[in-house]
Design a protein that fits this description.
36% helix, 18 helices, Leucine-rich repeat, LRR (right-handed beta-alpha superhelix), alpha/beta, single chain, 4-stranded parallel sheet, 26 strands
């Protein structure tokens, strides 16, 4: 890139070299100052510095006039040490040039004394630290100021706005942290401003549009935000605009079409949206245009064909669509590099390009939806790098062309067939195709590049490039079917097959089914077991990513990161400035939204059923709602949370640790991780702390009591079968309020609070803890905790795999999966926490299968691991379906019994006059005695207010007793999501 960084310096040198040395008048004081400078900077002078020698012995470094010493030019003189502040006493210094040395220390504020004479200050490329002295704003004649490539910190001093004659300002490659001062708009004479490679923040000041002489503006590699100000269109003389690698948003202003002299425009690696303005066709001097790694949409404007001087055109990694304009042939012999990879282009490569672009050396079109045959008219006589991967090209590679090609990437075009032979070809990637090399290409290195390397193939050169070729090299005999590819998905469009590349379809389908059916079912059969199936599927997916790469590659594809339905049930993709993590952001955000939506649906069903029951309306509708899973919020979130927490947390961690992360993914990951953690924290606080305030010795406010089951007179076989069903699938215990002896008696003002707490736990939170037996109400926190930690580990493993270390990631992911499954199984065996035996047995079985599957992966037996994982997934689906069917049957039976009891005795048939199912309420008598004692213990009231309070309490106690009696009949009409543990059997 051309700039005028040193124009001022050489102008000053030329000016002062013309000064006659014979008329020089130097004082002894100036000589002493120069001598002190020699010592402070360790200048290697061999002769003493005197009045007679100071202006003669060093003619290239010290220039004098009849006023005295006017120029100190010690550029690249190997100076070390520090700049002495005493030099500020030189009365006539006009140019101070110290760049290209190793000076340390700070910039002396005393140099502000040169305010009446200094025109050039150049100390770039040193090791200076500290801040920019605001005192330098006094240099009213300064035209050039460079402090680039140092270690300066602090802010850009607003005082420098007084340097009204300044033409060049270069503070790049430091660690400055301020915003761009609005005051600098007064520097109307400036033409070169270099502030790149700092830590500047804030926005681009609109007021800079007043700097109408701007020629070269570079603010890249900072932390700037906001949009590109349309006011900058006033820079009619602009030649170079560099603003890449920031956080700019918004669109490209069409007003910039006024930059008719611009030749370099860099806006890549931002968050720009919108389309490429067709108005930019006025940039007829354009040489280098880089807009890659943004979120641009639309098509390639045909009017850009007027850029007759274009050398480089790069729009990689956007969301551009449409076809490739054939009229770009007008770029002709000037263009050398075209990069349009990772977009949504369709159609074919225009034949006219191959004929007209005779100087084109690099063409990257990978990861699009281009198709068709590669015509033999695509001559490209100078092409050296050609990437065609992950498209839909068909036919054979054209022979007799591309005579200069060195690197060819054609992988993952499944319809490419035949042999290829190019005399200068050094490396080729043809995995995932039916291409084979001819015998004449025996010296060609065959590789299978991961997409992360493919995106960077334009920089494949030197030693680093050779190492990449060796790292991803594969062995392929001449004209033999190629190896399987580490298949890639289009990073900006939907996956071609709808499933994760490289993962066996069977395990993908079964694990997807597990995720879907476990979002709504009753019981905890999905809570501890589903994460085990998810762990097995993820470990197998990582293993396939490694195996597909032939053991040499360490990453698979950028697309598959959370681009699978088990981890991302809605296949959501949220733009986060990097296509690699789009699906991870979707899994983190949309999974949480799906969790909330399911909870709301369950709450609505429960609320509707309760309303119909209370008003005795629509018995048919009430019966229908009664067989549906339902629960009130916030407990309604418990079952779907147990299913989605592991992939949700994993996606958040992937957003934080992936090499493709940026500020947007980090903010998203942290915010969503906090939201995912909020629900278990709330449940732990409510159940394990608040609900223990009333119990003696910190006991839980509810207790779990055994259920006494009815022995029905049926045929022997039916009796045996029903007994087995009840033993396996019915809860052993149910939760109910503790007796007065088991809880601390509240004060009068606390009575209603305690009652409300009991009602809230049973009505709104039982779905969280109701699946567990006595003294195990806290086990939900154990299962969620294991899923959360395991999700974080596996999320990091998937990010590492995509970043380039799949084979190492699968090792520790499988090991961690074994550990977590073993811990969960051991706790289940030790504590026996589940109220339903089937749920306990299923969790143990699936934990064992998950351990076996992961162990087989570590042993290299992927096929066996796949079979075990499929068995686990099928078993889980069958178990969930069985529990759901049993729940429906049980609810229908309960409703029949309730309707029968509610009929008058005269209308009941003798066959239906059977005993009700009644739980063993061990504390019923004690509760009755307690209510009576409560009534008798109330002393005679002494005032009207006391009478009212005691009357309210009596009414409350009577209502509570009446409600207990009513619950024996009507309780089954309300069905929490954690059925069956919360039901009367």
């Amino acid at each position: 890139m051309q700039d005028r960084r040193y124009d001022c310096r050489w102008l000053a040198v030329t000016l002062f070299m013309l000064v006659s040395l014979s008329s020089a008048k130097v004082t002894q004081g100036e000589v002493d100052l120069v001598s002190e400078f020699f010592v402070a900077t360790k200048f290697a002078n061999e002769t003493p510095c005197t009045i007679d020698t100071v202006c003669v012995n060093w003619p290239q470094t010290i220039n004098c006039s009849d006023l005295g010493i006017v120029v100190l030019n010690f550029t690249s003189k190997s100076l070390t040490g520090t700049l002495p502040s005493s030099l500020g006493s030189l009365p006539h210094l006009a140019a101070f040039m110290m760049q290209g040395n190793s000076l340390t220390g700070t910039l002396p504020p005393e140099y502000a004394a040169w305010n009446a004479t200094l025109t050039g200050f150049f100390v770039g490329d040193n090791k200076l630290n500290g801040t920019l002295p605001p005192e330098y704003g006094a240099w009213k004649f300064l035209t050039g100021f460079t402090v680039f490539l140092n270690n300066l910190t602090g802010t850009l001093p607003p005082e420098y706005s007084a340097l009204t004659r300044l033409g060049m300002f270069d503070a790049s490659h430091n660690s400055l942290t301020s915003t761009l001062p609005n005051e600098y708009s007064r520097l109307t004479g400036i033409h070169d401003m270099f502030l790149c490679y700092n830590q500047l923040n804030g926005t681009l000041p609109k007021s800079y549009g007043a700097i109408i002489n701007m020629y070269n503006f570079q603010v890249n590699s900072n932390q700037l935000t906001g949009t590109f100000p349309p006011e900058y269109s006033a820079w009619s003389s602009l030649s170079v605009f560099v603003a890449d690698t920031n956080n700019f948003t918004g669109t490209l202003p069409p007003e910039y079409a006024n930059w008719t002299l611009v030749n370099s425009f860099y806006c890549h690696q931002n968050q720009l949206t919108g389309s490429l303005p067709a108005e930019y066709s006025s940039w007829t001097s354009m040489v280098r245009f880089l807009a890659r790694d943004n979120q641009l949409t639309g098509v390639l404007p045909s009017s850009y064909s007027l850029w007759s001087k274009t050398d480089t055109f790069n729009v990689n990694n956007n969301m551009l669509s449409g076809t490739l304009p054939p009229i770009y042939l007008l770029w002709g012999t000037s263009v050398s590099a075209i990069a349009i990879a990772s977009n949504r282009f369709t159609g074919s490569i225009p034949v006219s390009w191959g004929q007209a672009m005779t100087a084109l050396m690099q063409l990257t079109v990978s990861n699009n939806s281009l198709s068709g045959a590669l015509s033999s008219l695509l001559l490209f006589p100078s092409i050296k790098l050609l990437t065609l991967s992950a498209n839909y090209f068909s036919g054979s590679l054209p022979p007799g062309v591309w005579n200069a090609i060195q690197v060819l990437d054609a992988q993952n075009n499944t319809d490419l067939v035949g042999s290829f032979s190019y005399p200068s070809l050094f490396a080729a990637s043809v995995c995932g195709t039916s291409l084979c090399k001819s015998s004449s290409t025996s010296a060609t290195v065959l590789t299978c590049f991961p997409p992360s390397v493919q995106a960077d193939l334009t920089n494949l050169a030197g030693t680093e490039g050779l190492l990449l070729l060796v790292k991803y090299q594969v062995v392929l005999s001449a004209c033999q079917q190629s190896t399987l590819a580490p298949a890639a998905t289009n990073t900006t469009s939907a996956p071609r097959s709808g499933s994760t590349v490289g993962v066996p379809q069977v395990i993908e389908g079964t694990s997807t089914a597990v995720t879907y059916v476990s979002l709504f079912p009753s019981g905890a059969v999905s809570r501890g077991a589903v994460p085990a199936v998810q762990r097995a599927a993820i470990v197998l997916r990582l293993s396939v990513m490694c195996d597909t790469q032939g053991g040499n590659m360490s990453s698979s594809s950028e697309g598959p990161l959370f681009n699978d339905l088990p981890n991302n049930p809605l296949n959501a993709d949220i733009p986060v400035s990097t296509q690699v993590l789009g699906y991870a952001a979707g899994a983190a955000v949309v999974n949480l939204a799906l969790l909330g939506a399911i909870g709301v649906v369950l709450h609505i069903v429960a609320a509707a059923h309760r309303y119909l029951k209370q008003h005795s309306l629509h018995s048919t509708l009430r019966a229908f709602l009664g067989v549906l899973p339902s629960s009130l919020l916030p407990g309604a979130l418990a079952v779907p949370y147990g299913t989605l927490v592991q992939p949700g947390v994993g996606a958040c961690v992937a957003l934080l640790v992936s090499d493709a992360r940026n500020a947007q993914t980090i903010v998203c990951g942290v915010a969503m991780l906090l939201l995912w953690m909020s629900f278990p924290i709330y449940c732990v606080t409510t159940i394990l702390w608040c609900a223990r305030r009333w119990g003696t010795s910190g006991a839980f406010l509810l207790r779990s009591v055994p259920l006494q089951r009815e022995q029905r007179r049926t045929k022997r076989r039916a009796h045996i079968f029903s007994t087995m069903v009840r033993y396996v699938m019915r809860p052993r215990e149910r939760w109910q309020p503790r007796t007065d002896d088991e809880r601390r008696m509240p004060r009068h003002e606390e009575f209603h609070c305690q009652k409300e707490e009991v009602l809230f736990l049973r009505g709104n939170m039982e779905a969280v803890f109701g699946a567990y037996v006595r003294n195990r109400e806290w086990f939900f926190a154990v299962e969620w905790g294991l899923s959360t930690v395991c999700g974080a580990v596996l999320g990091a493993a998937q990010a590492v795999a995509v970043d380039g270390e799949a084979c190492s990631a699968v090792q520790w992911a499988a090991g961690c999966s074994i550990v977590f499954s073993a811990v969960h199984a051991a706790l289940c065996v030790w504590l026996l926490p589940n109220s339903v035996r089937l749920e306990l047995w299923s969790a143990l079985l699936l934990d064992v299968l998950s351990i076996v599957s992961a162990a087989l992966v570590l042993a290299g037996l992927d096929d066996a691991s796949n079979a075990v994982a499929n068995i686990a997934a099928v078993v889980q689906v069958v178990l969930i379906a069985t529990v759901m069917c049993d729940a429906v049957v049980f609810r229908l039976q309960q409703q029949d019994e309730i309707l029968d009891v509610m009929q008058p005795s005269s209308l009941r048939s003798p066959a239906k006059q059977r005993p009700m199912l009644v739980p063993q309420r061990l504390g019923d008598k004690k509760q009755s005695d307690h209510i009576l004692s409560d009534l008798l213990s109330m002393s005679a009231p002494t005032s009207v207010s006391d009478q009212q309070k005691q009357l309210q309490r009596i009414v409350g106690l009577l209502c509570e007793k009446q409600q207990q009696r009513r619950d024996k009949i009507e309780a089954p009409l309300y069905f929490p999501a954690d059925f069956p543990p919360s039901f009367i059997d």
